[in-house]
Fold:
Amino acid sequence: MDKIRRNERMSAMMRMLAGAPNRIFTLSSFCEMFGSAKSTMSEDVDLLREVCTGFDLGEVDTVTGAAGGVRYRPTVSREKARAYIADLCERLSGAERVLPGGFLYYSDILSTPDIVNRMGEIIATEYYGSEPDFVLTMETKGIPVAFATANALGIPLVIARHSSKVYEGSAVNINYVSGSGNIETMSLSRRAVRENQRALIVDDFLRGGGTAKGMVDLMREFNVTVTGMAFVMATAVPEKKRISDVKALMTLTVEDGEPAAAVVKPADWLTGAPVSR
Structure:
């Protein structure tokens, strides 16, 4: 095999790292693949790190220890996140998207891969430090964003369902009060998670917080710690939810009128405004 040039090595390395976010690749594996010395690969990693940092393309860093190596994290700066979400808010605001009951139609947004992937990267950026073992969501609309977040974090996605499925084996079922005040059931296979793991809850919409609280209670049944909760959108009313310490990307207010109009704004934690409690 011909000698591999540096630009070829770096292109291949970046493709591998970006294709498996937050996964650790050992330097030895790259050395064997490219037939290069560790010192040479270390120099390549340093160059990749500088390029990603200089162009705000994420983070390439090294992990020390016996299981150490190189990993890529698709981070989004607060400034870029704010600008991106502000643009989405403009698209979602107005009267044409308001549905009966004060809901907002944005299924088209949740079905667009590049938008969903970007939102997942924004959420993941906020929770790398908490090191969750998996992302938990409730079927069904929150699955795309939850999957994108899990992909950016490099961890599995776990989906709670409204009823247990025979092909998932024995399950834990709990009752919870939904945002509409109805008593509903939430189910999760016993094999889906393990005790003492850490969960990040990600869902599409937060109104009263009933479903989110149900997921927290469900994790308690498995003796799993919830490290954070993130949502695509939260309503401004009611201001007091059944859960606290959540991060929503956008805040929705529906103004009365003929017709009613939606006002969608970036969340306070993105804009730097004081967070109301």
